[in-house]
Amino acid sequence: MTEDRTEELWAAEAPEPLPAAEGLFAVSEGAAHLNHGSYGAPPLPVLRLREQLRAQEELDPDGFFADLPARVAGARTAIAADLGVDPAGLALVSNVTEAVSIALDSLPLAPGDRVLVTDHGYGVVNRAAARRAAEAGAELRVVELPLDAPDEAAVREAVLAAVDGRTSVAVLDQITSPTARLVAGPGLLAELRRRGVTTVVDGAHAPGMLAAPVDPDADFWFGNLHKWAFAPRPCGVLAVHPEWRARVRPLTVSWEDHRGFPASVEWRGTGDYTPWLAAPAGLALLRGLGAAAVSGHNAALARYGQRVLAERAGLRPLPATPGVWMRTVRLPAGWAEAEEGAREVMGEVWRRLGTRVAVRPWEGGGVLRISAQLYNRAGEYERLADGLAGLLKA
Questions:
Q1: Which of these three, 263, 286, 309, is where a domain ends?
Q2: Mean pLDDT value of segment 316-331
Q3: What is the mean pLDDT of residues 146-175?
Q4: What is the pLDDT of residues 39-92, one digit of tens each?
Q5: Taking the alpha carbons of 133, 136, 138, 139 in that order, is the dihedral positive or negative?
Q6: CA of 205: how far to CAs of 174, 209, 316, in Å?
Q7: Which among 154, 162, 304, 309 is most buried, taking Cβ atoms within 10 Å?
Q8: pTM of this prediction?
Q9: What is the separation, in whole angstroms, between the first and last Cα of the chain?
Q10: Could you tell me the pLDDT band of residue 342, with boundaries at 50, 70 and 90?
Q11: What is the C-alpha to C-alpha distance for residues 284 and 163, in angstroms, rounded to an integer?
């Protein structure tokens, strides 16, 4: 995957809606949901299946839980086939927040080691890395990636420049949450493996969006299925390289602990397993719609949304990775430069414009991210751009 050139943005046109997706989602038509990347929105058939599974559980709890390990294993096998990975190396989890703790707790960090993260990383994932490093007496190093880094090569070189003989672990986003950029690409992961650096990859946005989301060079990789893969919330997966599977430390000891990974990670007593059991149906629905058609539509719509935000609201588009269903623009200096300011901007955009967006704080002007999913329409981005033009002048 290579980086887009900013000048190509101006040729972006809005794609036609996919007829097969009409009426597929439950999101309110009275608002513009341009923040699919944060929480997802499962299609109605998948929601109905989850409700059926819940009903089964309540009709016969004993029978439901007695058969559950085998049903979870079946769901895992189906999901692994879609992701192109070995089911023996894949565990179902609630989300990446849970998965990163499992991965980090499984690493033998020691005093003097360095754990590398970037300033584009997801906040909770970076916090988990900081806590684990502090507990082990290791050092956390935050690599600053320029918002205007022109391409994947520039990002890769910035990360590698921070790697030295003490770097033992790199916790990297595959696609960054605040800036929608590719960081942990195949070239970077291969080079880190060559240098003996253990990689922990946050692939929260990869399943459903990328054709081959799990990179074989990642030591630990995790992603959410409830964002772009049409699964109910919460639903994620953790993929572990063969050399690490015997060392995986589950967050809790369970009745499946003796079986080792992945069963030891998956079982959590009387938890809600219905999102996992329904997840294969979401992936099957995505296949039925045509993964290439969905990807083409969503990527083009996100690109168009970024274009109109630049043209109509005068916001600076940030470099983007082709094929990603999210795009970002830079807010003016003084806007959303701290967490409180970012929350205020999101609140005002919702209250005044009836639109959900993601805004992350950044020194010199926050970053506003839009997402594109099948239920979105070109007019929603146009109304956001026109409204922001007035809001930023107020």
A1: 286
A2: 95
A3: 93
A4: 999 999 999 999 999 999 999 999 999 999 999 999 999 999 999 999 999 999
A5: positive
A6: 8, 7, 23
A7: 309
A8: 0.93
A9: 40
A10: very high
A11: 40
Query: What is the distance between the alpha carbons of residues 191 and 96, in angstroms, rounded to a whole number?
Result: 24
pLDDT class of 2 with cuts at 50, 70, 90: very low
Does residue 229 lie in a domain region?
Answer: yes
> Would strands 236-240 and 90-93 be described as parallel, antiparallel, or unpaired?
antiparallel
Pull the structure tokens for residue 14: 């809005």
Which of 251, 266, 286 represents a domain boundary (last residue)? 286
CB–CB of 370/359 below 8 Å?
no
Residue 360's H or E segment, with its range, is strand 358-360
Domain that holds residue 228: 46-286
Least Cα distance to 147 among 392, 370, 365, 389 occurs for 365
Give the DSSP per-residue string, 28-55: -TTSEE--HHHH---BHHHHHHHHHHHH
Task: Residue 226: give its domain's CATH number.
Answer: 3.40.640.10
Residues 189 and 154 in one domain: yes
